[in-house]
Structures are given as C-alpha cells and as structure tokens.
Amino acid sequence: MDHPAIFALASGVGRAAVAVVRVSGAGTPGILQALAGGLPEPRLATLRRLRHPGSGETLDRALVLWFPGPASYTGEDSAELHLHGGPAVIAGVAEALVAAGARPAEPGEFTRRAFLNGKLDLTAAEGIADLIDAETAAQRRQALRQAGGALATLYGGWATRLTALLARQEAFIEFEDEDLPAGLDDAVALAAAGLRAEILTHLADGQRGERLREGLEVAILGAPNAGKSSLLNALAGREAAIVSARAGTTRDVVEVRLDLGGVPVTLADTAGLREAADEIEAEGVRRARRRAEDADLIIAVFAADQAPDAETLAWVRPGTLVLANKTDLAAAPVMIGGQPALGLSLRSEEGLAALRQRLAEEAATRAGLAAEAVLTRPRHRAALAEAAGWLAELETAPLPELRAEALRAALRALGRITGQVGVEAVLDAVFGEFCIGK
C-alpha cells in the first residue's frame, strides 16, 4: 500500500547518547536525498551529514540506514536515523523531516502498516505490543511466542480445516445429484464436532495467558496486628507499609508490584478485618473485602499465638494460602479453617524463604507459564467462543444450507482474531495500545 511518509522517535524520550528516528512510507527516498544528500547502500549503516532541506543548516552527523520495501518492518520504503540524543538535535531533525514532506506517526502506525502490508497478523502485532510492555521473563517468553506466530499458526490451522469442511459442505449442496462419496454430509458434521472440541479445550485454560499478561492480584487479609503489613514489607524488600503495634494502622489498600517466578504480581495489604471503630476504618474494611473478592489469590494471615478470628476464617477456602505468623511466640497449627497452614515468623524471618517458594508456585499455577500458544486477550476468547457456538449450531441445523452458513460464520469469527476479515474497529483498538514509534 502507498501510504505517505511518517516518522517517529523509536528510542526513549529525553537526553541520551543515541536517539533513533524511524521513517516509513512513500517519499522516503526523496526525504533521505533531501536530508542526507543521497541514498546509502541498503541495510548498511552509513555516516552522513544531515542538513535542513530549507535552510541547508547542518543538524547532525548521523548513521543513516535505508531499507527499500518490501524488505522492511512495515513492507514500505523505510529508513532509520541514528542521531546524537540531545533534545535540540531531535527537534531539529523532526522539523527537517516535516519540511521534507513527512508527518509525525500516530501510536502503533508503523506496526499497523506492517499488518496492512501482510508482514504480520493481528495476533503477532499484539505480541509485539506485549513484548514492549513485558515486565518479567515469563511475560517476555509468552509475548515472543505470540509475536513469532504461535497463535497465528494454531488459528490458521483451524481456519484451513474449516475452509475444507465448508468446501465439502458446499459440494454436498451444489452437486447432490452427482456421484459424491457416501456419508459426506455426516463426515463434515463429525469433523466439525472434533474441531469444536479442540476450541473448547483451548478456551478452558483458566485464563492463564491473560493472567500472565496482566499480572495476578494477591490480597493479604487478616485481623489487626496479625502481621499483614510486615508480610508485605518482607516480600517487597522495603518498608512499603507502616508497621505499628496499634490496631487499625492500615486504613487503605497498600500495593507493591513483585516478580514471583516470572509472573508479575500486585500484592495488596488491606485493613485489618474486625468491627470498625469509626467510619474511616469501616471504609478500609469494606475495601479489603472488595479487594479479596476480586483477587486471584488470597493470603489469610493468622497469629499463631491467638485463636483464629471469625472474620478472616470466613475467607479461608480451597485455594486460599493460609499463614500462621509469630511462630517465635507459639507453634503453628497444622490446619486452619480446614486448609493446611504454613508457619513462619516475620520477626526472625524463619519460614520466609519457604513462603516465597510457595508463592512462586501458586503464581506459576495460576498464570500457566505454558510452552504452548495461549489466549492473551478477551477479544480472542470472545471470537473463539462465537466460533464454537456456530459449530454447535451446525450439529443441530436441519438443512445442509444452514450447516454451510454455520461453517461460514465460524470461519468469520476465527478471521477476526488474525485480521483475515474486515475488522476496522478491531484495528483501532489493537493499534491504539502501542507507543509512538512502533
């Protein structure tokens, strides 16, 4: 596609040793001629003096790279200018690029052009966005798999099978009087049912991909002075929450972001669960309960030297991580609320290493850390659920024409994930997440 030239700063904003400006689109060769005095050899970094095309003023001595399309990231004629990273240099080159006929890029416009030019599909584009935002090694690995085409390969395979089934169903309709293989219609229905089962298995993943991409929410609950804030500080490795012997010190939710075994986790210290002494503490308790309701994992903290309080016991259920703190004062009970209790002393740090290991295991279980392609976005899940629904319709459709229409609808739903069908609104949502310059 012949789009006008765009440019953007691809490196970080602010003073730096080197700044990289990307240019792409129709007119890029002329822009390089105007600024750098000619086109360098393709894909070979060349030192050039950059001049303003209007005034002829020297702006910088920079490395210039020229990528003729379609052998470029966007599939268009593209270039990179590796400048000295001072703000004045960057501003001067940006002004010169506008004078030469380019315009500043919108967020995600480079990657959007790569998609429109067939360099990647929507799932790969989303993988690139996730790679840019990755906080942990596990997120990086998942994003790399998706950017490398893992989801596109899986969904493309399903689409190919659906296309073949649709062709066979259409043949049954159009050439019913011809000498077709016996049981062709039934064979299509059987194969469609098998594909639907695969899609449903893929959907029944416990939202592992989304959880890894977005991070897990972990809420710490317990009575006042059970050690919730001390636990938050110990896991964070810093004094993120105020610790005091005075009950009710924590009134609001205090958050820290952690990397637990490659899974990003937001750990939330909450107000002590008890009958509130005033309206401010009552609001803190209400927020604590709401946070627990939304959490992927609850850590229920009890004091080993006291009887378990009823408020916290109400949140102990299968999947809750139960801690018995203050084992320096009393032995930890084996079970609390019907769940195994992990003993530790935050004062002496005894049992803290075992707790970190347990939390990493819990995070890995909930986020998956799978080697295979996994769903990473709600739009994928919605489209696959729709495709599975249409395949279920096929099993009960009374006419061959209705079965063919169900196959076509399932194929369209799959196509929306990868961008194989008209999805302008989806494109706006996907590429609007990107940073400028990507």
From TrEMBL:
Mg(2+) binds at residues 229, 250. The keyword Nucleus does not apply. GTP binds at residues 225-230, 244-250, 269-272. It holds the Pfam family TrmE_N. The keyword Metal-binding applies. The gene is mnmE. Its cofactor is K(+). This is tRNA modification GTPase MnmE. GO terms for molecular function: GTP binding; GTPase activity; metal ion binding. Binds 1 potassium ion per subunit. GO terms for cellular component: cytoplasm. Its EC number is 3.6.-.-. It is an enzyme of class 3 (hydrolase). Belongs to the TRAFAC class TrmE-Era-EngA-EngB-Septin-like GTPase superfamily. TrmE GTPase family. Residues 215-364 form the TrmE-type G domain. It is found in: Cytoplasm. It comes from the Bacteria. Exhibits a very high intrinsic GTPase hydrolysis rate. Involved in the addition of a carboxymethylaminomethyl (cmnm) group at the wobble position (U34) of certain tRNAs, forming tRNA-cmnm(5)s(2)U34. Keywords: Cytoplasm, GTP-binding, Hydrolase, Magnesium, Metal-binding, Nucleotide-binding, Potassium, tRNA processing. (6S)-5-formyl-5,6,7,8-tetrahydrofolate binds at residues 22, 80, 119, 438. One of its GO terms (biological process) is tRNA methylation. Homodimer. Heterotetramer of two MnmE and two MnmG subunits.
